[in-house]
């Protein structure tokens, strides 16, 4: 990991992180005193409270958790968190690149939080059972020193504060005991192995290798709540949370819209959806009409075509397109919902919009491409 630190920008890019977006790594060792054992609801609460355009979350579970409970049971246990956008890599070693790319680690008394502190990554502890570790160990000293998260408090504020207030050298008096010979493990281990085998050691130096790139980007929720605030001259701000937040009891402010993706939707979400978002297709406009006919409670349906242009249609048969940076175009859907909720026709939505999302100004262009009568076909029962 020390050899890979210079590749942090590359790892973040491979994870699909936008500039300024924060990666939260949640690390749990195994056993009843671990993060998942002692605070089983924290992972989902983090996903429900952290705006996902500002934060992405990755879980780094100890392999013994799956080994002890089975992959099926672990998958059921984490299903809601996955729907809320939490990434749980299949590769048990993916935590290494995640730690390097991370902006903060939420952990327990396992080794991963200690490694992250040694790398200068901000750390906050969900559980710190000092009685479970040797009181003379460096990990015990870290448990006594690192801040604790208030599980029932405002998690987003706590996460932001730890990131802002962090000093990379804060834990160096403790983490200096990680190893007495940093970066020397390849040479030391190779020498030991060859001495054990009683073979002559190769003449070329033992090299450190950087970690491989992440194989997949981080997840984002397919269904979400969007809080939209419109400004003057086609400007707006949008904050998005996972749709799982609907189950949490958190207040839903005025101007919040439910956008449901067609991947693993919950039935109640579809019944409540203000908008439905589909997958890329060559038949996008037909899909919009058929979807709105099947979901009479939705005001809008949207999906990209095969070229990445977004199409949005309402119940009058009006179709508009949105173009711009591909990763920003999904934000047009809740913005169009807000426009329709103010009793404005979708045709007047056309123009250039500036959207403030996670402290970034995003520009998209909307054009009206068609009008017509809404398809009145009823869904098959």
From TrEMBL:
It comes from the Bacteria. InterPro entries: TagF_C. This is Uncharacterized protein. The lineage of its organism: Bacteria, Bacillati, Actinomycetota, Actinomycetes, Mycobacteriales.
